[in-house]
Design goal:
The protein is mainly beta and 95 residues long. The protein is built from no helices and 5 strands.
Amino acid sequence: MQLGKVVGRVWASVKNPGLEGQRLLIVQPVLPDLTPHGKPLICTDSTGAGAGEVIYWVRGREASFPFLPGEVASDATIVGIVDELHLGKKREPPC
């Protein structure tokens, strides 16, 4: 899974029949500190994510798993919405 931020939405009047009824969102991959990392991509949405939300997304074969037993032709899918992100300093192990 990778972190990303929803930055937009795509409307398609003609698409693969397996994508009928599926939301397509534009996702900007981000690093843990939420700085952009790489090019934006189009993801199907299995969570109901909205604009500006930090999400987890997957790529490849796993991208179709949230829609089983349906057959959705997706190469990238949003699989989770991030509620909180904690970036504290690493603790030193006790001596």
